[in-house]
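Bumping with the actual sequence this time:
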Amino acid sequence: GLAGNQVTALWEDPEGSMWFATYGRGLSRYDGQTWTTFTTADGLANEMILALAGDREGGLWLGAVGGGLSRYDPHTPTSFTTADGLAHNMVMSLLEDRHGRLWFATWGGVSRYDGERWVSFTAKDGLLNDNIWAIMEDRQGHIWVGCQPLGVSRYDGEGWTCFTAADGQGGVLVKELLLDREGHLWVSSEDNRVSRYDGERWRHFTAEDGLAEDDVYGMWQDRQGRLWLGSPRAIRVYDGVQFRTPGVASIHHQGRPGS
């Protein structure tokens, strides 16, 4: 039922349904029983989606290849580009922080939008570089971004602190970041590696742990604590022991994602 295997981003909505952005096939939603696909025929501006996230008002934000941003809402569709203040039209990842501000990782730096004003950060402001693939917020309200290449940078509200392989971070071509419910930082890299940082040390996962030998583009932890990974060829779920490929039967057995 998934629209396409090239999954680039994942998101769980307030009702517990899992959303999967694909590269060239639009959006897919899985509610635990049924798959639903959304394409340009349903109002999407572009089916080559790289970034996906929801806001507190129920809107669904999408970043498409070279197309800037769009907020998917059948009633009030909205779009933004560099002409509006976005750092770059290639949006790789996005999030809404605890203050309701939207942050966008782009191929030209990091942009923040508070509903009225745009602010952008680049290497001149302390980032490792301007090629930003991933972004997330930790429990302290710090904003973390994954730079390609080099590593990760963290914004504490005043300035940026950078971490690279020299600090034990692992892969240098960072593509995705996620903070799990235990407060651990998960990092996926282009070298087919997923790393987890518990605040003291890094653990690196590979194919021996059940990972597909493929790049990970999307990560999400559902309400049951399972970690979902999306790659161009497969979806993997980490149950705390091993990464596995979820079949329809196994998903039904475990309950719907987010339940």
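The tokens above came from a reply further down the thread. Residues 58 and 73 are 8 Å apart (CA to CA).
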